[in-house]
Amino acid sequence: MEWIKGVAEKALKEYVMQGSTVWILSLQELCEADLQNMYACCSEVRQQKAARLGSEMKKGQSVGAGYLLYLLKKRFSIEEEPVILSGGKPVFQKNAGVHFNLSHSGDYAALAFGKNELGMDIECVKRANLKVAKRFFKQEEYDYLSGKEGEEQADAFFRIWTGKEAVVKAAGGGLSVPLDSFCVLEERIESCGKVYELCRRKLTEKGQTLWISVAQVIM
Fold first, then answer.
1. N or C of the chain: less Cβ packing under 10 Å?
2. What is the arrangement of strands in the sheet containing 99-105, beginning at the earlier edge strand?
3. pLDDT tens digits for 83-93?
4. Alpha carbon of 73 to those of 77, 80, 218: distances in Å?
5. What is d(CA 31, CA 159) in angstroms, rounded to the nearest whole number?
6. Are 189 and 196 in contact (CB under 8 A)?
């Protein structure tokens, strides 16, 4: 990331995940002046969106995501703003070969990009939510989760949850793709007539455990 210069350089980390690249921005390492400078780099649409948000955390997440998008455009010399498809997926119309996806959780904003269609999700690990799992997971996923306890159960929940979110975002279908229509216990998934490959990574940042999942379309 030698080409990256600016307010976020100290708080930005890069991970390569099977052909895709993930940038993670730690918002807690930034001061108010940093966030203001990042805000100035965001598009007018992103600035307006951030201004409408109520909580300071959500504003920071939105600004962080907008700044990562600014860095991506700079990296590939892209001048256009992305458009949002009907399913909620952002794409570049004139630079269709650059695929990307955004996510945020807690004090972190993240962006994944690569040459293949992809979706990405990042989550801060908390307690497992068995009610959510019962409603949205396939039976084999729920059984797998129920066989664990405590930290292992929380770890398994967010591994599965981020995997599902990544696949849905890669598909671009939004809520039209039921989370219980496919299983992510393995790394290759068939859904919506396509085949996806999942790459997942667990990180510990400043005492906070994060799960990151990237789903790429391979067939």
1. C
2. 12-17, 20-26, 108-114, 99-105
3. 999 888 999 99
4. 6, 8, 24
5. 31
6. yes
